[in-house]
């Protein structure tokens, strides 16, 4: 018999500002989840875990075209890019192609959303990489993760 | 072809310069070592200059 027959809901929203910085100029061509230029964008609640609904991406400045990759990482401790994320504990779950964008104050940039819809065990993580550099420093994306804490 | 100067950030290439080559006709790009040798393995890099003088070997 299943341990739980009832649906569970988030007790509070958990909106995480990805890296809290513009990412993209530093890229990573690896698709196995490894590499130094891998950014931690979400960590599930340390006690009960969480549920991630989606990731929102809007261009910052004028990013070049790229392929954005999202990885699930089962490591639960502190995260050190290039060290914590190994092929054994990290796997790609989504990719998104984004077009080049030139900053404008009269035309809105494309809004990209990556649906995740996945429960996350306590302290596990979502990581993000960019397959091609988005250009000079200051041009890229600052991902916003929409999630809830169990 | 169009080129950006980059610096590799990890693996055995860490700290070495390289190039990101854009083929605007096909819409593809590839990573190259400073001498023009293609880099096939997954690697991290950071763009250093998006408007450099193209590498000498690209003009041969």
Provide the helix percentage of chain B: under 10%
What summary fits the major beta sheet of chain B?
A: 4 strands, antiparallel
Poorly predicted residue ranges of chain B:
none
Main β-sheet of chain A: number of strands, strand sense, barrel status?
5 strands, antiparallel
Number of domains of chain B: 1
Distance between the termini of chain A: 23 Å
State the helical fraction of chain A. Answer: under 10%
Structural class by secondary-structure content of chain B: mainly beta
* Alpha-carbon distance between the two ends of chain B: 13 Å
Q: Classify the secondary structure makeup of chain A into a structural class.
A: mainly beta
Strand coverage percent of chain A? 35-45%
Instruction: Summarize the largest interface: chains and residue counts.
Output: A-B, 20 and 18 residues
Order of helices and strands of chain A: EEEEEEEEEE
Q: What is the number of strand segments of chain A? A: 10
**Cα radius of gyration of chain A in angstroms:** 16 Å
Number of domains of chain A: 1
Question: Tags for this entry?
Answer:
heterodimer, A: 150 residues, mainly beta, B: 60 residues, 0% helix
Could you explain the architecture of this structure?
The complex is a heterodimer of chains A (150) and B (60). Chain A is mainly beta. Chain A has one domain. Chain A has no helices and 10 strands. The mean pLDDT of chain A is 95. Chain B is mainly beta. Chain B has one domain (2-59). Chain B has strands at residues 2-8, 17-23, 28-33, 44-49. The model of chain B has no long low-confidence stretch (mean pLDDT 94). The A-B interface holds A 25-32, 34-38, 65, 82, 132-133, 135-137 and B 4, 6, 9-10, 14, 20, 27, 29, 31, 41-47, 49-50. Strand 2 of chain A pairs antiparallel with strand 4 of chain B.
Helix and strand layout, with pairings?
The complex is a heterodimer of chains A (150) and B (60).
Chain A: E1 12-16, E2 26-28, E3 39-43, E4 50-60, E5 66-73, E6 90-98, E7 111-120, E8 125-130, E9 140-141, E10 144-149
Antiparallel strand pairs in A: 1-10, 3-8, 4-7, 4-9, 4-10, 5-6, 5-8
Chain B: E1 2-8, E2 17-23, E3 28-33, E4 44-49
Antiparallel strand pairs in B: 1-2, 1-4, 2-3
